[in-house]
């Protein structure tokens, strides 16, 4: 499989529909394959991600906010699989910092079209991966 979209349980229905339409239009055909894995709220997020990666996708796309992105990135640490982002959270700080469009179709088009891969630094604290920042003290409790 070429592209695996991992969708957080908090993603709005309208965004899910836009993702399906954009993926079908931009990635369906020309011998390319994709799958959309929608994680249910009652599932273990980390286990669902690991299970989804057993499909051996060439690239993985996190659909959600910064927390979703961090969880998917954690599963991809020490692999060579590219990680794409379709921002669908509240802040989408990582996507904003990287210049990724906030519009679902535009973000999928970036994944589907010619694009430049770049490595980003990540940090691991207490077994969790962080891509942009991590809070301590009062900040972490909020």
Give your account of this protein's structure:
By secondary structure, the chain is α/β, with parallel strands linked by helices. It has one domain (3-141): Rossmann fold (3-Layer(aba) Sandwich). 38% of the residues lie in helices and 19% in strands. It contains 6 helices and 6 strands. Helix 1 (13-27) links the parallel strand 1 (3-7) and strand 2. It is globular. The N and C termini lie far apart (39 Å).
Keywords:
4-stranded parallel beta sheet, globular, 6 helices, two-stranded antiparallel sheet, 38% helix, Rossmann fold, 142 residues, alpha/beta
The Cα radius of gyration reads: 15 Å
**SS elements, strand count:** 6
* Helix/strand structural class: alpha/beta
Count of separate structural domains:
1
Shape: globular
CATH fold category name: Rossmann fold
Give the low-pLDDT segments: none
Mean pLDDT: 92
How much beta, percentage-wise?
A: 15-25%
Strand neighbour order, sheet with most strands? 2-1-3-4
Order of helices and strands: EHEHEHEHHEEH
Q: What is the distance, rounded to the nearest whole angstrom, between the alpha carbons of the first and last residues? A: 39 Å
> Helical residue percent?
25-40%
